[in-house]
Specification:
FAD/NAD(P)-binding domain; 12 helices; alpha/beta; 5-stranded parallel beta sheet; binds flavin-adenine dinucleotide; 3 domains
């Protein structure tokens, strides 16, 4: 019988074990997935470079209020992790940074990284927040999904790690008009550095983990739900910010148009998901749970409020997830309407939601105070450029593809590059954490292999040609 040949994509590792591989892992993206992978590797005694595009870490989880199914305060369970990452001696944290180019192969990747200029000397800055307080320029905050403002000099949130501000050049009065410098005047340690420039640095890594997460399908792409132009219609992440104690309303549910407490709220699931003709064909997997959570939390905040949920069917397939949706219906008296919404439009100070209840066969028309749409989860646009640069495969929707979705859901076809979390498709936090730990284990396996070639395992991820 012919011996099975190692697939050609692994052949390259043969030479790597013979040279001295770089015992460092680069993790791209510092959401909960990237942070988990970085901590697992760092706690195993290896060096990690953790790269994040934004000024601080935490990803989408940092924007959440409470998390299903336990209703833990998201910030309370996330902060110990972000702090651990920020202080870990084995983690080199590079925020406000992006990959510019990558060369080399497993064992010896050379990565060019663009470090954006925060225009603040982070070594000197104490994070006192006085600059933000004194800055006169206010702009809508994308971290708040435009439900709140920030200043031109800002941190993403009060719990930001690192707790250092950046100046948004496009909205800074000094950068645009040549005068102001209020932040500089009031900074007690002289940390403002308007002349700072972005830098290019090079890092070496033996393995890479890509954990760049997901985005939300834009409401503007869905005219049936108002196309993002109807007042008091928001997406689920914006509603998270309204529910969040650290959000712009300190957790008080208020509608954007007039600050009134909404008495009737309509939640719309499957917005843009499971819609092969017009939008995305796939199920976004977490929306049933996100909506149940948000309807429960709304009912906890507004005891006399009524919540309605339009759904196609309930897909709550995690441990205790079905019980959680049942709880929304039974304990918190959320009214679930099986059917699709056909139109959302403004009438006076209400938002009209027209749809059909497919169980009773009756049309449904609700005059709501607020409408919360749970849009499809989609890959971040920047992930495609990264995938092209790394020569990684993606599916027709742009999610990154593992080499084998059934038995090797973490490895890519490129040796030494692994995937972690929702960059591969919609995932909740527990699944992201488990997936990321898997990626860390794979990377650690490679490092061990290179350090001790005799301890080679039978894993296909570390095969070398005989
Ligand atoms: C409205 C809403 C509510 C939710 N509620 C819950 C809940 O209650 N419970 C639950 O389990 N799950 C919930 N989720 C899902 C949860 O948010 C995800 O499971 C989790 O955020 C996935 O983490 P991640 O690290 O894979 O991705 P992300 O959180 O998206 O993190 C990715 C990180 O990578 C960074 N990045 C992106 N591109 C680059 C790049 N090119 N270079 C460097 N960095 C980059 C991003 O800035 C980000 O920090 C909710 C999701 C939504 C939308």
């Amino acid at each position: 019988m012919q011996p099975l040949a190692a697939p050609p994509d692994y052949a390259i590792l043969g030479s790597v074990t013979e040279q001295s591989a770089v015992p460092r892992v680069l993790v791209i993206g510092a959401g909960i997935g990237g942070m988990q992978a970085a901590l697992d590797i760092a706690n195993a005694g290896h060096q990690v470079t953790l790269l994040e595009r934004l000024p601080s870490i935490g990803g989408r989880m940092a924007q959440l209020s409470e998390t299903f199914p336990t209703l833990d305060c998201a910030q309370c369970i996330l902060t110990p992790r972000t702090v651990e990452v920020g202080h870990h001696p084995n983690i080199r944290l590079l925020t406000y940074s992006e990959v510019e180019g990558i060369a080399g192969d497993a064992g010896d990747f050379r990565v060019r990284i663009r470090r954006h200029a925060p225009f603040v000397d982070w070594e000197m800055c104490t994070g006192c927040g006085l600059c933000e307080e004194k800055c006169p320029a206010r702009v809508p905050a994308s971290f708040e999904r435009d439900t709140g403002d920030r200043k031109a000099i800002y941190r993403l949130s009060p719990q930001a790690v690192p707790n250092k501000p950046v100046i948004d050049r496009e909205n800074c009065i000094f950068f645009q008009r040549g005068k102001c410098r209020a932040c500089e005047r009031f900074c007690p340690v002289g940390a403002i550095a308007f002349d700072q420039e972005e830098t290019l640095i090079e890092e070496q890594a033996g393995a890479i983990i890509v954990a760049t997460g997901f985005d939300l399908y834009d409401l503007a792409c869905m005219p049936e739900y108002g196309g993002g132009r109807v007042l008091d219609v928001m997406d689920a992440l914006a509603f998270e910010r309204l529910l969040s104690a650290s959000g712009p309303t300190a957790g008080k549910v208020q509608r954007p148009s007039d600050g009134a407490v909404p008495r009737e709220v309509v939640f719309i699931q499957c917005a843009g998901s499971r819609s092969p003709e017009i939008h995305k064909s796939y199920c976004s997997k977490i929306c049933c749970m996100v909506t149940a959570k948000q309807a429960i939390l709304y009912r906890h905040r507004v005891r006399d409020g009524q919540a309605y949920v339009f759904y196609i069917d309930i897909r709550a397939a995690g441990k205790r997830y079905d019980e959680f949706s049942q709880r929304a219906m039974e304990e918190d008296e959320v009214i679930y309407l099986r059917g699709k919404v056909s139109r959302v439009f403004r009438q006076g100070d209400r938002v009209m939601v027209w749809g059909a209840d497919t169980l009773s066969g009756q049309p449904v028309r609700i005059a709501a105070d607020l409408v919360v749409v749970a849009p499809a989860l989609v890959p971040r646009p920047s992930t495609q450029a990264l995938a092209d640069g790394l020569a990684l495969a993606s599916d027709k929707d742009g999610w990154l593809l593992p080499v084998d979705p059934v038995l090797r859901p973490i490895e890519t076809a490129r040796p030494g590059i692994f995937l972690a979390g929702s960059v591969t498709g919609p995932m909740d936090i527990p699944e992201t954490v488990a997936h990321a730990s898997g990626a860390a284990a794979r990377a650690l396996g490679l490092l061990a292999e290179w350090q001790q070639p005799s301890a080679r395992t039978a894993s296909p991820g570390v095969l070398t040609p005989s």
